[in-house]
Every structure is written in C-alpha cells, then in structure tokens.
Design a protein that fits this description.
Shape: globular
CATH architecture: 4-Layer Sandwich
Number of strands: 14
Strand content: 25-35%
CATH superfamily: Penicillin V Acylase, Chain A
Strand order of the largest sheet: 10-1-2-11-12-13-14
Distance between the termini: 29 Å
Number of domains: 1
Largest sheet: 7 strands, antiparallel
Helix content: 10-25%
Order of helices and strands: EEEEEEHHEEEEHHHEEEE
Number of helices: 5
Length: 287
C-alpha cells in the first residue's frame, strides 16, 4: 500500500472515510478483498479468544498470497488498519517477520487502536520500514519505525500517508489531501473518491534530479509494466455503524480487471454482505 487518505470526523455522517491505492509488483500473487474465514486462523491475537468466529470480529480484507498478510482491512465492528512500506533504510535480518501481519493481528485481536499502536512501537525495529494506520471508534493512530515521531494520534480532519511520514510534504500527499477534503463536503460520492485515486499525472514539482521512475511514482496512481497501482479502495463507516467497502483491481496496463463491493448494515451481529458497486455510498447498505 503506497497511498492512504483518511477522513476522521471530517464528515457529519461518516466519522471514518478512507480512500487508498495499493502499489505493488504485478507478479506478486494477491487475493481480492473478501471476508476471511477465521475459523482456520488459530484464534485472534490480543486475547480475542473464541470471538474470532463472531460477526462483530469478522475481517474484510485483501490477502497477500506470498506472506499471508494484508495491506488494508476492516472488521464488522468498524476497526480499520492499513499499512504502507517505508524504504531507504537498512532492513532487519532475513528472519524478520512480515509487515503484513501487523494489520492482521490488530484486526483479529481485542486491543484498541491506541494500545495496539503502543505494543507495536515496542517491537517496531524487528520489521522493515513501515507506517501503520489503526482506527477504532475512539480514534485513529499512526505508528511507524522510521523518523523521530513514532506514535501519532490523528486530529479530526483529513490526512494523507504515503511511503514517508504522516502528512509528508510531498505533492501527491498534500495535493491529494486538499482534494480529498473537498470531496468530503456535502453528499459523499464514491466515484469522486475513485477519481481522486485514479490521477496518474506525475507531480510537476517532482524532484528534478530524480529518475524517470521517481517521477512516475510521484503520481497518485502509478502506471508501470513491472510495478504499479494494483488496486484502489474506498471505505466508509457511518455513525450508525453501517460500513461500505469497494475495491477496484488493475493489471499492468492500468486496465480495470474487477470490482468487489461489500456492505455491513448497522445492527448487532450483522456481517458483511456482497453487494453491487453503487455510485453513491449512501445506497450501499440497501443495495
């Protein structure tokens, strides 16, 4: 995952809105977003116990078929996690655990976002460079193992996270956050958020001494035969508890190859349902 926009208490109806692109090598095997069968997971981390099979703890996420983790996921009770990689540093030893387990352990577990972020920060050096966003009803937190500020609680408003620190001053983050905020005014349109993510224009302010690859990767949507944007995701959580989730997948030519949509209606015990992918977020739960 290389770019995540988060709206936290920035919209009167939706306390959490997420628009994200996952950038990865096209040859890396991936399963599209779907509810996970946690009955075979061996139980959740963090003391969740037998609750792994309950609807309230059900995970909806894509899956990395190499290491088994995920880059972005949500549970039926609205707990959210997303991961971006951070390069430019010495990686840990060859036996280091996969970064993709960090979102999964949070989503499977019972720890709150703040507590889990603190737990991860204590062992963060075991992993290659990462940024981890965590959300529950109490707040949104970012933990990283690079830079001086390792733990951050997000203030209400709009935020952006790429492969640098939270709200880094890079064009695709700063410009994207501004556009994201404008799209959170009034009625929320899913297609407008996907249009934001689909912008493949390299930043005009891209580093002049950088390589052609640096310029290509300065765009929100990365086009490339070997490495590029593999999927775009829009997630909303309503105050009522209703969750909507849509993922669009792309091939090496940046051609859309599929869409999946899910909704979790408000109400105790409700689980994710596959739905058609509507243009308006507000129609998802009734679709």
């Amino acid at each position: 995952m290389c770019l995540v926009f988060v709206g936290w208490r920035a919209h009167p109806r939706y306390p959490l809105v997420v628009a994200a692109n996952r950038d990865e090598y096209h040859v890396r095997p991936t399963a599209p977003a779907a509810p996970w069968d946690e009955s075979a997971s061996g139980g959740p981390a963090g003391g969740g116990g037998a609750g792994a099979d309950a609807a309230e703890g059900r995970i909806l996420a894509g899956r990395d078929l190499v290491a088994g983790g995920t880059w972005l996921g949500v549970t039926a009770d609205g707990r959210f996690a997303a991961l971006t990689n951070v390069g430019g540093s010495t990686p840990p030893g060859p036996g280091a655990p996969s970064r993709g387990r960090l979102p999964v352990d949070f989503l499977r577990g019972a720890l709150g976002a703040r507590t889990y972020a603190r737990e991860v920060s204590r062992e963060a050096e075991r992993y290659s460079g990462f940024n981890l966003l965590l959300a529950d009803r109490g707040g949104v937190h970012c933990v990283t193992n690079r830079g001086d500020e390792r733990l951050t609680e997000l203030a209400p408003g709009c935020h952006g996270l790429g492969n640098d620190h939270l709200n880094a001053m890079e064009p695709k983050v700063t410009g994207g956050v501004a556009e994201f905020g404008r799209r959170l005014v009034g009625e929320l349109e899913t297609d407008e958020l996907f249009a934001l993510l689909a912008d493949d224009e390299p930043a005009a302010e891209a580093e002049p001494r950088g390589t052609d690859l640096d310029r290509v990767r300065s765009a929100r949507f990365i086009r490339g035969d070997v490495y590029g944007t593999r999927s775009s995701t829009v997630l909303t959580v309503e105050r009522s508890g209703t969750i909507t989730f849509e993922e669009r997948s792309f091939d090496a030519r940046a051609v859309e190859t599929g869409r999946v949509g899910f909704a979790r209606p408000a109400g105790a015990g409700a689980d994710f349902m596959a739905v058609r992918t509507p243009a308006r977020v507000r129609d998802a739960a009734a679709d």
